[in-house]
Write a structure and sequence with these properties.
With about 100 residues, the protein is an alpha+beta fold. The chain has two helices and four strands. It has a single domain, classed as Alpha-Beta Plaits.
Length: about 100
């Protein structure tokens, strides 16, 4: 049975550079664990996100949270992404999904 790996890329800091408190991430952990029965957070090795914006390179330090699910409820994920964008004060939070095979 195919599964989906869903990854959420979350910023470590607000646009002004202030770091989000640990409780912000604890809430996401709790929500994902409750809905999906578990989750994985890659928080020790911070990733760097780069993109072009207005002719310059913008940068974010990010952490990755992920879940696996046999179903992909796009409507739920769209609403959850919007709530994260509000919570993390971001124009866009990236949530991506891949089809995977459990071995």
């Amino acid at each position: 049975m195919p599964h989906h790996l869903i990854q959420i890329l979350l910023p470590l800091s607000e646009n002004e550079g202030r770091r989000f408190p640990p409780s912000t991430y604890a809430r996401v952990r709790s929500e994902l664990t409750e809905r999906f029965g578990g989750m994985t957070a890659f928080t020790r090795g911070v990733a760097e996100g780069l993109w072009e914006e207005n002719g310059r390179t913008a940068r974010d330090d990010i952490v990755v949270f992920e879940v696996m699910s046999p179903d992909l409820d796009a409507r739920w994920w769209d609403g959850y992404r919007r709530s994260l964008e509000t919570r993390f004060r971001q124009e866009r939070i990236i949530i991506r999904a891949q089809d995977i095979a459990l071995l």
